[in-house]
Amino acid sequence: MYTILHDFTQRPAPFSRYTAGELWTRPHLAQQMLEYHLNQETELASRPRALIEKIGDWIDAQLSFNGKSVCDLGCGPGLYAEDFARRGATVTGVDLSPLSLEHARKEAARSGSGVSYQQADYLNDPLPEGFDLVTLIYYDFGILSSDQRKQLLARIHDMLAPGGAFVFDVLGTGSLAERSEQTLVERNLLHGFWAPGDYVGMQQTWLYPDEAVSLDHYLIIEPEQHWEIFNWFQYFTKEHLTRELTDAGFTIDTLTGSLSGDPLHEDAPVFGVIARKEPAN
Hints:
- This protein is α/β, with parallel strands linked by helices.
- Helices cover 33% and strands 29% of the residues.
- It has helices at residues 2-8, 22-25, 27-38, 49-63, 79-86, 98-111, 146-159, 173-176, 189-192, 238-247, and strands spanning 69-73, 90-95, 116-119, 131-136, 160-171, 182-187, 200-208, 213-221, 226-234, 250-256, 270-277.
- Helix 4 crosses helix 5 (79-86).
- It has 10 helices and 11 strands.
- The strands form 2 sheets. A 7-stranded mixed β-sheet has the order 3-2-1-4-5-11-10, sandwiched between helices.
- The longest helix is centred in the N-terminal third of the chain and has 15 residues, at 49-63.
């Protein structure tokens, strides 16, 4: 146990360990994540429906969903995908979680939306192509390392038709300035979120100002096992975003303070982005 706790107190190099998939593949965590997505009282996993509709309104005003082919990456239980379909888009949702996709498919059958869902790891598995619009919403782009973001941008570029748009949001460096380092140790940390039985949960938050990165590192100690989760976040400036998108063959069409169209301020805590794939010559 000494070695486990000793290692937990050591600051890891940014993005040196990556466990994001476990939030969607451990059965208890997958159920918790689905419940948090659907919970209208918290924004820990998704946004309330009223705000999702406001985001849909803003994207629709910029690009018009009607008649468009749209892919929502990291679609979860289909909250955005269903909204886009109601606005006239033909929508494909892609997600890693079988449980979230089961819920999404039931909702599509109930609503008659026609949304199609595909289980896939969007970094590694085959993805559909030929879309007018690809979305990646709720800061998912920033949980990836620089190499992973480069890989994903190349894949999204291939998914889009010439002139197609990539719509996403990220946290700005203004959000990093609001964070602080901390250590928490609690029995059943986050009210039983991490495991169905008794456990001790430890959270160590690390900040990396030079890299504009933060880490929430969790150690979950159950009676018969222990395991860890590494939740990384990359925070962006306008210059950083522009560089990564330009290198991947995109141009920024619109940059705002959120995907609901809030004004963009210096040291913005959030960026909403519409980037365009260069049209064919």
